[in-house]
């Protein structure tokens, strides 16, 4: 419990220092992608275990499903770099809406396949679907996210 409180306090501090309004589209995107990143990291730990526990993948997959449902709506016109908000989103998201829509559909489709493989209880298929999901993330980051 102490660790949870400390982690939440740190997250609030970092969010407060980021210069991004957490209620803005950029702030909501940032929060959603933080959850996606944490879920992907948790899945990686599940599959790297000497004896992977498929049940342990349930929570991160649920998080991915929830974020996949909201992420496409978090890129309204005017919420990119021109908004003045700090964002890692590149202008290509808005100048290439068809391409970005395809990338987002690839992500949501990969999450659905991951969920289906997990629901079927198939460890190998779930692991493969998680790897495919990672590829959709990388493809989108390559074209639509600022390089670190």
UniProtKB/TrEMBL annotation:
The lineage of its organism: Bacteria, Pseudomonadati, Pseudomonadota, Alphaproteobacteria, Sphingomonadales. This is Cytochrome c. Binds 1 heme group per subunit. One of its GO terms (molecular function) is heme binding. GO terms for cellular component: periplasmic space. InterPro entries: Cyt_c/b562, Cyt_c_II, Cyt_c_prime, Cyt_c_prime_subgr. Heme c binds at residues 137, 140-141. It comes from the Bacteria. GO terms for biological process: electron transport chain. It comes from Novosphingobium flavum.
């Amino acid at each position: 419990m102490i660790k949870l409180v400390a982690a939440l306090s740190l997250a609030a501090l970092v969010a407060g220092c980021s210069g991004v309004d957490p209620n803005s589209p950029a702030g909501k995107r940032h929060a959603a992608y933080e959850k996606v990143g944490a879920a992907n990291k948790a899945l990686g730990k599940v599959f790297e275990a000497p004896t992977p526990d498929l049940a342990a993948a349930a929570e991160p997959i649920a998080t991915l499903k929830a974020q996949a449902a909201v992420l496409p709506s978090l890129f309204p016109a005017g919420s990119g770099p021109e908004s003045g908000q700090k964002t890692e989103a590149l202008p290509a998201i808005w100048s290439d809406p068809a391409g970005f829509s395809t990338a987002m559909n690839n992500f949501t489709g990969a999450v659905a396949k991951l969920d289906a493989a997990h629901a079927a209880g198939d460890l190998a298929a779930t692991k493969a679907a998680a790897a495919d999901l990672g590829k959709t993330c990388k493809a989108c980051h390559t074209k639509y996210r600022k390089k670190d």
